[in-house]
């Protein structure tokens, strides 16, 4: 009786006992009242029914008084009350209604097992109570002699049945008491763990709020009070004044609007700036004191965000350097290949080749300028230098530089420069020229047929400049991404650097670069230069402007002269896949000089189609020179598709695919082999190296 765990269990049982007898009493009274209303009070309260009701009410009153007394008093009260009820039931079975003895015995058994045996903790005391109950109902009757006679006849059966029932009860009660003890010990441990957890949460380094579904505060730790610089009583008003970055909604409103049915994982509420420190607020659902609640975590992320920003900047710098290497190698490759070819050409062809070199170096100057501009923008040192300049001359120079590429690609270049544009315009001419050159380069790159138009018009208060092409166009979902520095998912291409730089330059000039595009029909990039006091001119002065080319002397001894046999082929044996016009032109001229027939494509998708087409015509390619970085489909992906087509039997012969790339990192080289290429050539590639590799497969 002294065990705390059993006392707690008895208290719970006594409370249940009170509820049961109260329900029985209330039900009895209600029934009596209904009988009194619909029949008569004599029937309802006659035959001592009133006395019984009053006695039951008195018992209930005593039970509520005993509830405040020590456990020993409550136990004696329950034991005595159950014993009286058992005696009444036995009396009824003997003298009131002998036919209901089984029902009375069952009622007495239920009262004994569920209430009387739960009074004492010891199993032996309760065993005596059960034996007493069996003896009273099995061996006591009105006719003692008949009882003795029946005992002589049925004693064995009665004893065996009684022993089985008592044994079952002992096993059940022993197990029940053990489980009750384990449950109590578990509750004590849980209570201790809850206290330890509360102490831990109180000094936890992150701020913590536990709020119920009804927006009632359940717990606030000391860290949060320090972060918000307020006490527990003023937390809610303080939360009402804290707003997340880039939002006008306060933290308390965000918490109140949380959906408890959906917040199963940590949900970020945003980042706030409190006392020059950045804190991230997140919410999760937990159960606190048997109630569904929200756990709000407030974490100091000032250092983390700083580290992530530095890490992101480092990744961007790495990607920039990698992509810059690719962009610079492309024109250098063209220059080197042209120079290699010059040494085997007659003097009559040298002028044309030198003009190509001039254009390559001009393009290289623009790309280097883009990189320098990006560096200055990143460091905050970018400046606009406005002077009086001949804007028309700058624009015409752009058209001249791009005209060779347009001609080689079979495109019409239309240049419309308004005569009303003054000869001298106060603007940063070199920056404007850089923007226009970037737009023209993009137009050339993504236009396979049709025309490219450069237009500059004096509208009175400004000069409207646009570049229009009939290229592949830009899908609507991509329009918002084309001005980003890295345009594809892997951040491996610098195709967006020119537009990124152009957009920033125009912003500094007080202008905006706009784009309108229809997929399959072409694009129009346009901007306006706000130039005050533009005065119309009477005539247009033609200017011939050539960019300065560094005087680079290349010694003939630096390039080896190799012997190479001339091939005669019935059909094209080599496929050149490259999006850069000069690369295709130079590679093609090199193969032509050796009698090797070839086909040109400008992206990986076209390369796959050509391979299938020529293989079905029983004219398979022996070798493919595959540029790795191309629009629509890059060389790596195209190589995988061609290899898969061979594996699946779509093509009968697998060409030897050689990667032609300006990427020089180990990862990119390994990517060539992983895609199915048998080798690679790094741009710029010497002429003899190209011929040596091709000779192995053609």
TrEMBL record:
Residues 573-698 form the Response regulatory domain. PROSITE patterns: HIS_KIN (PS50109), RESPONSE_REGULATORY (PS50110). It holds the Pfam family Response_reg. SUPFAM superfamilies: ATPase domain of HSP90 chaperone/DNA topoisomerase II/histidine kinase, CheY-like, Homodimeric domain of signal transducing histidine kinase. The modification 4-aspartylphosphate is found at residue 627. Keywords: Membrane, Phosphoprotein, Transmembrane, Transmembrane helix. GO terms for molecular function: phosphorelay sensor kinase activity. InterPro entries: 2C_system_His_kinase, CheY-like_superfamily, HATPase_C_sf, HATPase_dom, His_kinase_dom, HisK_dim/P_dom, HisK_dim/P_sf, Sig_transdc_His_kin-like_C. The keyword Transmembrane helix applies. The keyword Ribonucleoprotein does not apply. Residues 323-533 form the Histidine kinase domain. The chain crosses the membrane at residues 20-38, 72-89, 110-135, 155-172. PANTHER family: PEROXIDE STRESS-ACTIVATED HISTIDINE KINASE MAK1-RELATED (PTHR43719:SF28), TWO-COMPONENT HISTIDINE KINASE (PTHR43719). This is Histidine kinase. It comes from Stentor coeruleus.
